[in-house]
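Ticket #4471: structure export looks truncated?
Reporter: QA, pipeline team
Priority: medium

Steps to reproduce: submit the single chain below to the structure queue and open the exported record.
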Amino acid sequence: MKHLTIDDFDSEINSGKVLVDFWATWCGPCRMLAPLLEQLENENLGVKICKVNVDEQPDLAKRFGIMSIPTLLLFKDGKLADKSVGLINLDSLKEFVI
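Actual output as written to the record:
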């Protein structure tokens, strides 16, 4: 999973389906979501998965109005298509990206 910064964010989300996980190291639910995202990535569902650490990239968190973490943003060809806030299970995660 690629960790995005303010410098490469727009270029990474501009084509195809991209799921971006806004997270922080101190967030328990974020740590619980991480292995589910790895599983999802391994299933090759046609979605690129990236992460944004809100402590290291506060401008990106502010840009998308991230108030709670984990927050998942799904982009399709650079446009925000969907948003999910909080911990979700693997089945719900698959439904979210399809």
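Status: closed, not a bug. The export was complete when the record was re-opened. Leaving a note from the reviewer for reference: The chain has a mean pLDDT of 96.
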